[in-house]
Design a protein that fits this description.
Elements (H helix, E strand, L loop, with lengths): L11 H5 L1 H19 L13 H18 L2 H8 L1 H22 L2 H9 L1 H7 L5 H15 L2 H7 L3 H23 L11 H24 L11 H8 L5 H9 L14 H59 L2
Helix pairs in contact: 2-3, 3-5, 4-5, 5-10, 5-14, 8-10, 8-11, 11-14
């Protein structure tokens, strides 16, 4: 059945994740309470800017769309939606949090005992780079992914770990915690972005150029139904199985599994290129602005020195 809209048969809870929606609202509420009312309780606290609040709201809307709307349900049905979820979650949502969270709050969060140990990894950018990309590649090994999707606890634990590793990976580029002199310069930041893309490429290439479907949870009916328990209430799924209404993802789309898989790999690669292009542009123009500022400062300093020398010379003439 070539009709994705038929996912409505799974019911409102599976499609719109109301509990996750409440969680997103609660996080948003806490964010604005901290940044608008309680910011004086933090060292260096200041009122939030309109730009930061707008980015945070946009990011939380994206969080719900990607992980709480029918997009999440479709990510368990079609591999192409799974990769769409991966791309937005780890390559857009994660770095946007650095733009949305004020500097004083970032410093407080990173100073918390457990968090401090985790983000200590980011002090070694190469390690942070390898950790995320290595974990991402291992997760997409068929034997790993198929087994993880059979356990809700294991699957969501790995998704959270990958998200944390994505935050750690982008820390050396976008954090507001470290003093400027401890940051990589603009050139190294751009090379770092290129490095992320290069390390993601092998996993994408393996998925795109595979000669046959790799993941049982997107092709085998029994494995797929077991994996669907991650997002569909058990009662709803049992009822649909008992009526013989569904047997596999082919019920929702006429796309061959291999084409779905290849589309997923292509989506990941294209989204990566789009997001990284914006990042590179942002880093380049901020670097250029800082360089110009430094040059202007040096020029001003030289002119001031010359003026003082002239005044000193005139006093002794």
């Amino acid at each position: 059945m070539d009709n994705i809209s038929s996912i409505s048969i799974f019911g409102f809870i599976a499609n719109w994740s109301p509990f996750f929606f409440i969680f997103v609202l609660m996080v948003t509420l806490v964010y604005f309470l901290v940044t608008k009312r309680w910011y004086r309780e933090f060292e260096g606290g200041r009122p939030i800017t309109n730009k930061e609040s707008a980015i945070f709201i946009i990011n939380m809307v994206l969080v719900y769309i990607i992980y709480g709307s029918p997009v999440d349900l479709l990510s368990h049905i079609l591999f192409s939606f799974h990769m769409l979820q991966m791309a937005f979650g780890y390559l857009l949502i994660a770095p946007l949090f650095y733009a949305a969270i004020p500097d004083y709050l970032q410093k407080y969060i990173v100073s918390l005992p457990v968090v401090k140990q985790i983000f200590a990894i980011a002090k070694k950018p190469l390690v942070a780079l390898i950790l995320f990309n290595g974990a991402f590649s291992v997760y997409h090994l068929p034997i790993v992914m198929d087994n993880l999707k059979m356990s809700a606890t294991a699957h969501y634990a790995v998704i959270i770990i990958l998200f944390v590793l994505a935050l750690v990976m982008f820390y050396p580029i976008f954090n507001k915690v470290e003093p400027r002199e401890n940051h990589m310069n603009g050139l190294f930041k751009m090379l770092y972005i290129f490095g992320i893309g290069m390390l993601l490429t092998p996993a994408c290439a393996l998925i795109i150029f595979a000669s046959e479907p790799m993941f049982r949870t997107y092709t085998n009916g029994d494995a797929w139904l077991s994996a669907m328990e991650l997002c569909v209430p058990a009662g709803t799924l049992e009822s649909l199985k008992g009526q013989g209404m569904i047997s596999g993802p082919e019920y929702f789309t006429g796309m061959d599994p291999i084409h779905d898989q290849q589309t997923g790999g292509i989506i990941m690669k294209i989204m990566q290129e789009i997001f990284f292009s914006f990042m590179l542009g942002f880093i380049f123009f901020r670097w250029y602005k800082h360089e110009r500022k430094d040059e202007d400062e040096m020029t001003r300093h030289s002119l001031e020195e010359a003026r003082l020398k002239r005044e000193l010379h005139s006093q002794f003439r």
